[in-house]
């Protein structure tokens, strides 16, 4: 962590979110770009995702995209190599804005600890807030704590409780790691990033791209309005099937959440087995839905 004096927003408005200059380095002068850590002048770089998606003119891809393809390939290779021997794991999502000591923060710590005690590695986005809380709980539970960081215009940095951290340039490479090496999702209260991961996971299960994949939301007071809107609007207007509501389970008890995840992980490891921990290799019990537009 930098020991340099921290500029105020007035001294360095470009380093604050919402200032208009979203490519400027953060206030602490440090930016991560994939595996690179850049400081001061070197941190004044454009995000890789922005460069990839913001094509300026016809034919530009002939000169730049082939190199990006190799860089993207390297992110997958590095991620696959780092996580190949991880073992059973669960991805935990939640707000980066959750404050230490708050109810939701302590909830994240308890979730991480109980997952570790159940023999499951904890994967988060590696940032602050609920991600930090889950990583902290995993360490306290003597488990494996993984963080998958991402290059952002407002630098978050890897939290101190991450044992194995990987920094990505591209969202889609990072998202693959969240799903490929997890046997379920636990979702704590969060904002746009959390919702993005949640709905992507639901689509993957609903379209049977992943199997025996439990998704558990913790916090009925927080998630119930969203679930009610899905029921009264999306289902009511025929945008999704009634049974698709069973793709997720909403609970308040972290122990129950981990129990549901552990059962799903057992089905994932033994899809052809028998007994309560075994499944058929299709979608989680109760979903019963096939691919839909």
Question: Helix and strand layout, with pairings?
Answer:
Elements (H helix, E strand, L loop, with lengths): L29 E4 L2 E4 L8 H6 L6 H24 L5 E5 L9 H15 L3 E4 L5 H11 L4 E6 L13 E5 L2 H10 L4 E3 L4 H15 L8 E4 L1 H16 L13 E3 L2 H16 L24
Parallel strand pairs: 3-4, 3-7, 4-5, 5-6, 7-8, 8-9
Antiparallel strand pairs: 1-2
Structural write-up:
- With 293 residues, the chain is of the alpha/beta class.
- Helices cover 39% and strands 13% of the residues.
- It has 8 helices and 9 strands.
- The chain has helices spanning 48-53, 60-83, 103-117, 130-140, 171-180, 192-206, 220-235, 254-269; strands spanning 30-33, 36-39, 89-93, 121-124, 145-150, 164-168, 185-187, 215-218, 249-251.
- The strands form 2 sheets. The chain has a 7-stranded parallel β-sheet, sandwiched between helices.
- α2 (60-83) packs parallel to α5 (171-180), α3 runs parallel beside α4 and α3 (103-117) runs parallel beside α8 (254-269).
């Amino acid at each position: 962590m930098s020991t340099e004096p921290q500029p105020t927003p007035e001294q360095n408005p470009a380093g604050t979110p919402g200032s208009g200059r979203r490519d400027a380095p953060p206030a602490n002068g440090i930016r991560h770009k994939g595996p690179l850590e850049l400081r001061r002048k070197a941190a004044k770089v454009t995000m890789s995702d922005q460069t990839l998606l913001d094509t300026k003119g016809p034919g530009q891809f002939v000169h730049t995209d082939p190199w990006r393809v190799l860089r993207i390939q390297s992110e997958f290779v590095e991620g696959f190599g780092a996580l190949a021997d991880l073992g059973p794991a669960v991805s935990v999502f939640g707000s980066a804005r959750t404050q230490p000591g708050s109810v939701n923060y302590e909830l994240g710590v308890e979730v991480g600890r109980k997952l570790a005690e159940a023999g499951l590695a904890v994967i988060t986005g590696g940032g602050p807030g609920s991600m930090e809380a889950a990583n902290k709980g995993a360490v306290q539970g003597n488990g494996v704590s993984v963080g998958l960081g991402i290059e952002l215009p407002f630098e978050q940095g890897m939290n101190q409780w991450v044992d194995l951290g990987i920094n990505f340039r591209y969202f889609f490479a990072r998202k693959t790691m969240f799903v490929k090496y997890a046997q379920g999702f636990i979702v704590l209260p969060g904002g746009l990033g959390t919702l993005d991961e949640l709905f992507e996971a639901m689509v993957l299960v609903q379209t049977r791209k992943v199997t025996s994949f439990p998704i558990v939301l913790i916090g009925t007071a927080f998630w119930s309005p969203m679930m009610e809107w899905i029921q009264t609007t999306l289902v009511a207007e025929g945008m999704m099937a009634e049974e698709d509501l069973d793709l997720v389970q909403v609970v308040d008890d972290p122990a129950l959440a981990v129990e549901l995840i552990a059962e799903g992980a057992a089905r994932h490891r033994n899809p052809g087995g028998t007994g309560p921990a075994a499944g058929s290799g299709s979608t989680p019990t109760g979903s019963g839905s096939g691919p839909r537009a």
